[in-house]
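Long-time lurker. I teach an intro course on protein structure, and each term I like to show students one example going from raw sequence to a predicted 3D structure in C-alpha cell notation. This year I'd like something fresh instead of my usual example. Would anyone be willing to generate the C-alpha cells for the chain below so I can use it in lecture? Attribution to the forum is fine with me.
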Amino acid sequence: MQDTNKTEAQLINELTELRQRNAELETLIARYPKTERQAPDNTSESASIQVSGDTLLAPDQIIRADLAVALQKLETEISEREQAETELKQYHNQLEELVAGRTAELMKANDQLKQEIAERRRTETALRDSEQRFRSAFDNAPIGMALVESDHTIVQANRALCKMLGYLEKELAGKCLKDITCPDDTDISAKYHHRLFAGALEKYQFEKRYLHKDGHTIWALLSVSAVHNARNKPIYAIAQIQDTTLRNKAEEALRAYSERLEEMVEERTKELETAQEQLVRQEKLAVLGQLAGSVGHELRNPLGVISNAIYYLQMVLSEADETVKEYLNIIASRVRESEKIVADLLSLSRTRPVEQQTVPVTDLITEVLARYPPSDDIKVVTRVDPELPPLFVDPQQIRQVLTNLITNAYQAMPDSGEVKITAHLEQNTVHLLIADTGEGMSPETINKVFEPLFTTKPRGIGLGLAISKNLIEVNGGSIQVKSTEGLGSTFILTLPIAL
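-- Reply from a regular --
Happy to contribute to a lecture. Here you go:
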C-alpha cells in the first residue's frame, strides 16, 4: 500500500511539471503570429541564409520546429499522463474497494474474535469457579475423599482422609492403594478398580479395611465412581471413604448384647420352665401324697400279714421240695417290692423335716451296697477319694436316694454289666456319680425321667426318681442325668459338705 501511494505522488509531480512547461510553451508561442510560425517559402531569398553551399534556417523557423516537436511530445506525454491518471484512478478505486472489503472482513473477524474471546473468558471463569467449588468441597468434605489413577496411585487426598489414616497430604499423594489397604481386602479392591477403568463398571461400593499409619485397622465404606475425559474414557477414580469403625463397634456391641439378651431370655425361660415343672411336680406329688396316705395305710397291714405268713411257712416247710421254696421266695420278693412301693407312697404323703448332720459319703455307699448287694452277673466298682470332706445332709433321706439309684442301675442291666460309683470334690461340693452299662435312655426319656408316675420298667409306678429329686433338693443339692442309648446312664448328685 505504501509503494502505490508513492508512485501516485510522483505521477502528480510530473504532471504538474509538464503542465508548467506547457504553460511556458504556450506563452512563448503566443509571442509570434501564426503566419510567422508557418514554414518559409524555399524561393524566398530573405527566408534562408546560404553558408558554404549549405542552406541555413532562419531563427523563427528553428523555434517553430522545436516548438512543434515539443508540443507534439508534450501532447503525447499529456495523453499518456491522462491515461495513466485514468488507470491510476481505476486502480485507486479498485484498491479502495479491496481495502474496504478487506477492512469489513477484518472488522467482522475482529468481532467474531472478540465474541470468541469473551466466550472463552466466560468458560474459563466458569471452569475456574467450578474447580474452586470442587476443590472446596473436596478439601472440606466431612468424609475421606481421594483422586486415584488407573495404576492405583493416589493423586490427591483431602484432609478428612489424611486425618482418618494418620498421614499428611504430601505423604498420601503418590502412595499406592495397596499400601493403605488391609492385605485381606487387597484382591477384591484391585478387582473392582480394574473393572471400573475397563468400562465394565460406572461405580461400585463395598466395605473394606484400611491400615492406619500406626498399623491398626479401620473399617470404612468405600464408594467409587469414574471421572471421564472428552472421549468418555475413564481417567481418574473419585473415592469417597466413610469411617464405619465406630458404627461397626456399636453394631458388634449391640449384637453381643442381643446375643446376651437372648441367652438371658433363654436362661430365664429355662428357669421358668424348671419352676413350672417343679410346680407341676409338686402338685402331682401333693395329689399323690393325699392318695398315698390313705392307700398306703390300707396296704401296709395286709402286706405285713402276708410277710409274716411267708416267714411262718418258710419255717414250717423247711423240708419242702424246691418248687415250694421257690414259690415262697417269689412271694416274699413281691411282698418286698410292694412294701417299697407303699414306702414310696408314704414318703409322698408325709415328707419329714430334714435333719442334716455330718456323715461320710463312704458310709452311706457301704450301707446301701450291704443292704442291696448286686447279683452275680453285675460288678460294682467304687472309687471314692478318702480325703473327701464329710457331707452335711440327712443320712436317711440320702440313703433312700442312693437305694433308688443303685437298684435302678441293677435293673437296667438284666443280663450283666457294671455299676461304677465315684465321688470327688468340686467347688466346695461333693459330686457323686452312679453309672451303669445298661441300655441307656433316649433324649425324650431323659426329659421326663424325674416326672412322677413316669417309668420305662415293666414293674413299678415311677415314683423313685421323682422322690429322689425332691429329697436331694430339700437337702440343698441337685441331681441330673446323662445317658446315651446303648451305652448306659450316669446320675450325678451334687451334695453340700460340712464346713
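Some talking points for your students: The first strand starts at residue 49 and ends at 51. Residues 1-6, 34-54 have pLDDT under 50 and may be disordered.
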